[in-house]
Amino acid sequence: xxxxxxxxxxxxxxxxxxxxxxxxxxxxxxxxxxxxxxxxxxxxxxxxxxxxxxxxxxxxxxxxxxxxxxxxxxxxxxxxxxxxxxxxxxxxxxxxxxxxxxxxxxxxxxxxxxxxxxxxxxxxxxxxxxxxxxxxxxxxxxxxxxxxxxxxxxxxxxxxxxxxxxxxxxxxxxxxxxxxxxxxxxxxxxxxxxxxxxxxxxxxxxxxxxxxxxxxxxxxxxxxxxxxxxxxxxxxxxxxxxxxxxxxxxxxxxxxxxxxxxxxxxxxxxxxxxxxxxxxxxxxxxxxxxxxxxx
Length: 295
What we know:
The protein is α+β, with helices and mostly antiparallel strands.
């Protein structure tokens, strides 16, 4: 009988061992849970820096996307200035020159001359501006008159593929939404024409989501006591023209994106014509994608 008991105890864990295993399992489960937001943000920033140093641009873009999504879900959790520098590098590698320049400018404005990437960011702004001018000169070749009001052109499948690759998704809709919100983050309107950046929240900002047949435009206004007031407008995509008009007024330090339904002012944005043009372009592509999904 005693021998049987000894054989049994050798083949099965004791109650004490079971309790120990349950404790280890609980600890592992606890570790698997998400970190506190401020620690997760720091982890993602470190991962972004490592990915950039290794020139793993896809990974860096993925971490930046997660940081952007965190900031969207928790507006009080603002990313540090270096976020804009790394974002500029990733966008530059992807060929999105307007957004790259806006991101580098946001970094310089936020970090100032004491920032560790200050000189490099200034140099990259110059290089990006030069490349943009070269692109504009090529695009203007053969045109007799420049258009006074920019309109979008239908996006090619290749450009959508590039966006999917940049944002690491197989969905055109998701890629366009991520890109549009990324642009809107840099083009929020501030009283006096100041640029949005670290420590400089927009007085009027926007966030876009989408369903199968509508775009939801959330407007975030900062009132006199620094509280945010959010309102949402639904834009049904069927029956509207995806050619989005936009324009700028220097005297008001403001650019506008116009509502495709009636031509009224829909978004009040910073005086950043290149970025606002990209916003109108991307919004039009998103509308067209929802009207006739291609992927």
